[in-house]
Structures are given as C-alpha cells and as structure tokens.
Records
---
Amino acid sequence: MASTGADGAGPRHVAIIMDGNGRWAQKRGRPRLFGHHAGARRVREIVEACPGLGVKYLTIFAFSTENWKRTQTEVAGLMSLFRRYIMKEMQDFVRENVRVRFIGDRPRLDAKLRALMDEAEAMTAHCTGTNLTIALNYGGRDEVARATKRLARDVAQGRLDPEAVDEETLPRYLDTRVLPDPDLVIRTSGEARISNFLLWQSAYAEYEFIDTLWPDFSPEIFAGLLAQYGARDRRFGAVSA
Ligand code: IPE
Ligand code: IPE
Ligand code: MG
C-alpha cells in the first residue's frame, strides 16, 4: 500500500514468520514446546513496540496448514498454548487498544479454541490502536482456494458477473479483506522461504530474512529492520524519480 521506503516512511503493515522456536529449545536441550512457550512470550513486547514505531498492522504466523504434519504431542501442545495465550493476554490487549483478528481456516480447529478466537475478536472489535492479526491454521494456497470457492458460489448464484472479475475481486474474498497488503515481511531463523504465508498479499512486499531465532527476537531488532526498510526504494514496477 501507500508507504514507500524512499520517502523515509516506515512500513504500515509488517508481517512476521515467527520461526526457530524448535531450534532455540534444542540448543538448550529442552523439548520443542519449551521453545514455543518462549516464543509466545516474545509477542507481547513486539506488539507493544508497534505504536512507537509507526506500525499500524502487525500480522504474525502462529500455525500453518502444514504444521499438522508434526507429532501429535507438538500439535496438541501448540493448540493448548494458543488457548492459554488468548485467555491470558486478552484483557491486556483490550487495555492497550489492540484490535485482534485471526486469519486461517477455522473449522479444523477445536471448538473451545474457536470460541476463544471469536471472543477475542468481539472483545477488541472497538479497539483503534494496533491491528494484530494472528494467522492460525493459515496457508496462503488454502486461503486462495477457500476464497475462490466463495467467489465461484457468487458467480453460480448470479451475484457476481465473471466478466467483472479483476485484480480487485479476489482480495475481497480473502481472510485479509479488511487489511492492507503487508509492506514488510520478516522471517526469523535463517530460512529464506515464505512457507505459504500471505501469497497473494505479499506480491510487492519487501522481505527481511534474519538469522535470529524467534524467541531471541526483540523490539531493538525490530526497530533496526524498520530503519533498514526506510532506506529501500519501492518502485512497484516503475522507475524511481
Ligand atoms: C515456529 O518455530 C513455530 C511454528 C511453526 C509453530 P518452529 O517450531 O518451526 O521452529 P524450528 O523451525 O523447528 O526451529
Ligand atoms: C512457518 O514455519 C510457519 C510458522 C512460523 C507458523 P515452518 O517452520 O512451519 O516452515 P518450514 O517447514 O520451515 O517451511
Ligand atoms: Mg520452523
């Protein structure tokens, strides 16, 4: 969206692939879930840093549609962590005026977790500060497939003219329909891939791949990446002035 690095403005929407919890735990000889708990604790201070850094939208990748391939112990531990996290943090998010949203395919999540997600969204619906979006059971291809299904239904039922479908149409069916596109996508832990995150939305995002493991990420590292973003020239296919 509008913010360009060239004019020194910071990114309005930052998306983070929070990777490296397992390796962080492994380095300490602890189970992977120990790393996930440490990772979850880092989220709060990054959210709190957003207003001071001019970040209006923060979207974080918590669980992918591919993460079900992990052991039953890890998946169950993560689901339990998400439930506890929402219960524990919600009051603080309301106090800090943080609007919480979730993206991803919800029906596959358990009913208790889904109820907590709905509650968190409802409780913070009036908040006007940072927009925190948590991607939970999220996959970019899955999101596009689900969006296409809804779009096709609208065509079949005569609500949408197929000749009118253009680049603006599909985004209206995506989970992210109320969010601007990310300006900057950060991935921790040294992997230079996007692992099915925000495929459509990140077409023109800037990327930062850093070696830091997610539980070691900090507001200082975050601020440094935003400063680097400010020096970039986002041309969007045009020639810079
Ligand atoms: C990211 O950390 C958190 C989730 C994917 C849920 P990982 O669990 O992928 O950590 P590594 O990549 O194995 O170190
Ligand atoms: C991406 O990390 C998903 C999340 C951070 C939630 P993964 O660790 O699952 O990605 P791969 O397997 O390295 O591609
Ligand atoms: Mg990983």
Note: Residues 18-23, 63, 67, 78, 189 surround IPE (ligand 1) (CB under 6 Å).
---
Amino acid sequence: MKNEEKNIDEIISFAKEKGFVFQSSEIYGGLAGVYDFGPLGVELLNNIKKDWWKANVQKKMNYFGLDSAMFKDPRVWDASGHTSGFSDPMAECKDCNSRIRVDKELENIGIDADEKMSEKEINELFFANIGKIKCKKCGGSNFSEAKNFNLLVKSNLGDFTSKGDKPVYLPGEACQGIYLNYKNVVDSMHPKIPFGIAQIGKAFRNEISPRNFLFRTREFEQADTQFFVRPEENKEPYEKIKKERWQWYLDLGLSVKNLLWSQHKNLVFYASDAWDIEYNFPTYGFDEMEGIHDRTDYDLSQHSKFSGVDLSFNDNGEKFIPWVLETSMGMGRVFLAVLSEAYDKEKIDDEERRVLRLLSKLAPVKVAILPLVKKDGLKEEAYKIYEELSEKYNCVFSDTATVGKRYRKQDEIGTPFCVTYDYESKEDNSVTVRERDSMKQERVKIGNLGDYLNKLI
Ligand code: GAP
C-alpha cells in the first residue's frame, strides 16, 4: 500500500489494538497531547533509539553520548532565549473561549505563516482572513487578537540556585543539556575540534492545540546531536551532516518518495540556516520529522554570558567559542513514520492479511516459536528452542490456535520469522522457518538455527 492509500485513524486504532500506543490516563478520559508506549511500542521505540545511538555515537569516533537531567537552573532558559522568545501565536474565540493556534489555522487555509513571525505580522494576516477561519467548538469567527503564548512548562521544584523566585521549567528542548555539559565533556574527554555530543532526552511544550496523534504532543522525546566546529568552518560539515541524516531514514526503511527536504524561510532566534526532513504521514501529508540547524555560536556565547563561565575552546593556545551544527529529531514522529510506512494490507485467497513490514532490526519481536500442537511432547521441545533463542532475541512462544492463525498474528505485529516445531522435527531434528513478507518456508536443522537467524536478523 502507498502512504496515500493509508488512513491515519486506522493506524491509530491498530496501534492501540496491538499494544503499540495508548492515550495517557485513558481511564480518566485521556490527557490531551500525551501518549504512552505499550508493550510492543516500547520495543519498537527502543529499537529505533538503539539504531540512532549506534549511528550517531558508537559508529562515530568523535561523538560522545550524554544523558543530562531534566531539571535545570532557571537561568538556562533565560540564556537560551526560551523565556522571552519561545512562543506560539494564540487567539481566543470571544464567544466560547476556546483557543486556536493562529499560524496553524492560517496554514490550513493556504496562507504562508509560522510561529516565528512577529505579533504584528501574524495579526495582519489573521484579520485579513478572519472570515475563513472558524472556531472548532462553536463555528464562529469572533476572535481576539493573536498574542504570543509561551510554551515552556513550569514545575514547582524548589529553586535554591538562582536569585528571585523563578520557576524551574521542564526542558522546552532537550539540547540545552548538551550545551550545559559541553565544558564537562571537553575537560573529561579532551576531544579534538570538530567533535559532537549526542543525547536522547525529553522535551515538554505547552502546545496550544496538540494534534495529529504522536505528531504534536505536549511531552515528547528528542534525539539530538550538536557538532562543535571552529567559527565559520560550518558549511562543509553542515552538508555532510544533512546527507548522513537523510541516509539514516532510508536505512530505517522509509522510502525516498515519502521524504523531502524543506528549508526554513523564517528562522528561529538561534539559527542562521535551517532545514527540515519531512515525512509524508498518512492523511496528514508531508510535515517535519527532524530539524537540522546551523546555530552559530549563539548557545555557547549566551551560556558564557549568563553563567560567567568561559566556554571557549582552547585549541593549542588559540581560544574561540565553537559554532554549533544541530540535528534534532522527534522520536514520536519518527516512530509514527516507521509504523505508517510498515503498515500494509494485502489480499490472499479472498482473505485480508494485515502485515507490518518492519525491518528485522526494528521489529519488536524477532522470532516466534510455535509448536504445531501442544501434545505429544511438541510443546516441551519447542520451548527448549524458545529458551535458547530468547538469550539473544526478543522472542515469543505461542501454542494457542491453529498455526495459520498464529502466523497471521505475528505478521500483524511485524515478527520477521516464525519457527514451527512439528511431528517431523522429532525425526529429522529440523524446524520450519517461515519468513513474514514472502511467507516462504524453509526447513532448517535445529543445530544450525541460531546461525541461520543471525545472518537474517
Ligand atoms: N533543539 C531544536 C529544536 O527543539 P524543534 O524544531 O523545535 O527544534 C525538533 O524540534 C524536533 O522535535 C522536530 O523536528 C519534531 O520532530 C520534534 N517536535 C517538536 N515539537 C514537537 C511536538 N510538540 N510533538 C512532537 N514532536 C515535536
């Protein structure tokens, strides 16, 4: 199936039915813009993260991993510009008090607008088109002026570090933890410039209108790399990083026709150049999955200024503040892209087969071990295979329903291989290995099974 033929509502209900994604606090009616990853979802999520970590830390000589705390000194968000400049334009319906995000509403009616415009610019566009924008709740067009609404989420953690009574915010973007630890990494790891720091961390935003399932949520994870280069030596590495990030998505199984580049017209306060990699989400269409930003020396200069600590890099006596090239990917959006790309349905003998065509490295379950029947010792023998294989892979053991039904169940959750132990297995010490996509079956000696699967997974 092409993505254009897929329906996002069907994928959302599939994600719930099969234990991939649940609405947060569902038994209390659900918390808007917050989602939980279920038993299979967390496996898929972890596999995406593992792949990202491998590509961005373990396979790169000059990149260092990090896991910084979420709570930070409140002054961090002043230095970063978030307390003053991190906002979306919001207007209120004067009739029913519900709120809209004005830049998105303008975009929906085909007007080029975004959150980086000034209040004046956005209000001019808003009031020139006001009749075309309807309140989702009451259907009216009686709106207040758009005002910038700050997206930072406050906590009530005691603030004993800074003067005054500033709140301790939850991170508005995960990457600030990298800038705060830049000096620690330099002092402990003694990298040569250029070098990178990579992290997967949570971010929280008070989104006015969380929407589109995992696409725009209030709590999400970002996988970031920050590459520190000598001042103005940014162009060549920026192009190289862009190429690598594009390739990573192809290696994740996303097809090239569902990906595109888009350059930012209006830049956020910290960036001198910015590109997005967009994905063609079912029903929603193309939208941002990852941002690649040339942040100049903005962040380290600001943190030097606000903290009073010199963050220059000393390269054999030559001191300078490095420039930063950032890649920032929303984990939830990539998860949704991977799930959407893999979701497929096909007709087989008048029956519909639902299959999740995930790459083996991403599949939540790698191997299902199925005794043909429970009796005559087949179950016990099959269980021995399960015990052995699950030392290495996430496996399931299933002995209920017909083997055909069990195959279909594994197809739906993307399990690439099913291993069936049948009556002949006792005689020939072999099992049947069935591959998910081709449904081809092959007889493999039990003694060779580990090596056989190793080569394929
Ligand atoms: N440090 C740079 C930064 O935060 P961003 O473009 O605001 O840049 C980077 O965010 C990525 O984080 C986006 O490309 C998107 O994938 C993800 N993201 C941003 N806001 C999100 C939200 N409300 N829900 C889910 N993902 C989001």
Note: DSSP finds 14 helices and 23 strands in the chain.
